[in-house]
Amino acid sequence: MTDGGVRRRRAFIGSFTAAGGPGIVTAAVAASGGALTALSSVDGVPDPSYLALAPGGGLLYAVSETSEGAVAAYRVTEDRLERTGAPVPVDGQGPTHLSLHAGHVLTANYGSGSVTAVPLRPDGTLAGAPSAVLQHAGSGPHTRRQQGPHAHQVQPDPSGRWAVSVDLGTDSVRVCVLTDGELTVHREIALRPGSGPRHLAFHPDGTRAYVVNELTPTVTACHWDAEDGTLKPLTETQVLPAAPAGDAYPSGIVASPDGRFVWIATRGEDVLSTFAVEGEELRLIGTVPCGGHWPRALTESEGFLYAANERSGDVTWFAVDPDTGLPRYEGSIEVPAASCVVLD
User: Fold this and answer.
1) Do the strands 172-179 and 182-190 form a parallel or antiparallel pair, or are they unpaired?
2) Which of 24, 118, 148, 210 is the most exposed place for a label (fewest CB within 10 A)?
3) Which residues contact 117 (CB under 8 A, 6 or more apart)?
C-alpha cells in the first residue's frame, strides 16, 4: 500500500484471547522509525497466537491455538482485516506456528505433535480440509515436557524445496517433502537429548541454521545442505551470560538480513540476547531488557526488533545498532496477551 508515493507499512499482532487478548491487532508503522500505532482489531477466531503474511501482503493467515486447532485467512485492507471464510480445522491440537509452502498453509500442532498441510486456492484463500497430517513420534528425557512429540514450528527452507519442522518433545528436526498435498519425512535429525528445540532460523546465505532450545537455554548452530536436505548440528552456545535463577525458556530467534547477527528472546529472564555470527559459530555479545515481561516472539524489520511480551501485554521495539547489532529500546504499544508480530 502507498500513500502519496510512500509505502504505507502495517504490523499485525497476534494474541491469546483466552487471556484477555483483543485477537489480531492491525497497527501502522511510522514512516520514519519503527514506532507502532494501533488502528483496529478483529476477534472472531480464538487465540490467534501466530501469524504469517502472504507474499505481497494481501492476505494474512492465523492459527487458532486451541484444543480443536484451526487456521484462518484474512484479507488485508487499508486499516483492518476481513476474514475470507470460516476457519479450517487442522486435525491437530494446539497449533503454535504456521507458514506458507508450495501452495499450502503448514501448521505445527504442539498438543498433538503433528504437522498439517491445508491447501490454498489460486487467490490464496483456504481451499478446504487438510490434504495431509504428518504425525511425529518419539519422546525425550524431560519427564514433564517430553512424554511425547510436540511440534513447535514448521517452515520452508530458503531453497523452497523442503519443509522443516522443529519438535520440542522429540529433541529433533524433521526435513519433509510436500508433494501433491502429501507430507513425508525425508530425514530426521537428532539434537542433544533434553535440549527441547523450539524454533529454527536460517542464515540468509542458505547454508547455516540456528535452533533455539527451550528446555536448556542454548542455541545450536548447524550446517544446512539444501541439495541433500541435511541439517548437521555443529556447536551449542549458552544464550545467557550466566546461569539463570530459574527456568529460562528461550523463545524467539531471528537472524539479521545481512547475516552478521542472531537475536534470541528469553522469557524467564525478560531479555534479548545478541550474537555475532563467526563462521559456523555464534558468540554472545550481550543482553538487554526486553522492555516487558515474557517475550514470546521476536521479529526483525528494516533495522528494528519487535518483541511480543505476553504477560506484560505489550509489544516493544528496538533500534538495532548496525555496527554492534545491539538493540536500543525505543517504545511500546499496549496489546494484552501479545504473542506474535509480523510486518509487511
Assistant:
1) antiparallel
2) 148
3) 104, 105, 106, 130, 131, 132, 133, 134, 178, 181, 182, 183
Return d(Cα 315, Cα 332) in angstroms, integer.
5
Q: Which residues of 151-181 are buried (b: 16+ CB within 10 A; e: fewer)?
A: bbbbbbbbeebbbbbbbbbbbbbbbbebeee
* 277: helix, strand or coil: strand
pLDDT in tens, 134-157: 999 999 999 999 999 999 999 999
Q: Which residues touch 327 (CB under 8 Å, ≥6 apart)?
A: 263, 272, 274, 288, 305, 318, 319, 320, 321
Query: DSSP readout, 173-214?
Result: EEEEEEETTEEEEEEEEE--TT--EEEEEE-TTSSEEEEEET
Distances (CA, A) of 282 to 3, 42, 157, 211, 344: 41, 40, 20, 12, 28
Helix, strand, or coil here: 35? coil
DSSP string, 100-120: EETTEEEEEETTTTEEEEEEB
pTM for the model stands at: 0.97
227 and 292 Cβ atoms separated by less than 8 Å? no
Sign of the torsion formed by the C-alpha atoms of 133, 112, 173 and 163: positive
Task: State the DSSP H helix or E strand holding residue 14, giving kind and residue range, or none if neither.
Answer: strand 9-15
Strand, helix or coil at 240? Answer: coil
Nearest to 76 by CA among 106, 54, 98, 43: 54
> Which of 263, 270, 327 minimizes the C-alpha distance to 294?
270
3-state secondary structure of 18: helix
In eight-state DSSP terms, residue 19 is: G
Give the span between the Cα atoms of 2 and 297, in whole angstroms: 28
Q: Give residue-wise pLDDT tens across range 264-323.
A: 999 999 999 999 999 999 999 999 999 999 999 999 999 999 999 999 999 999 999 999
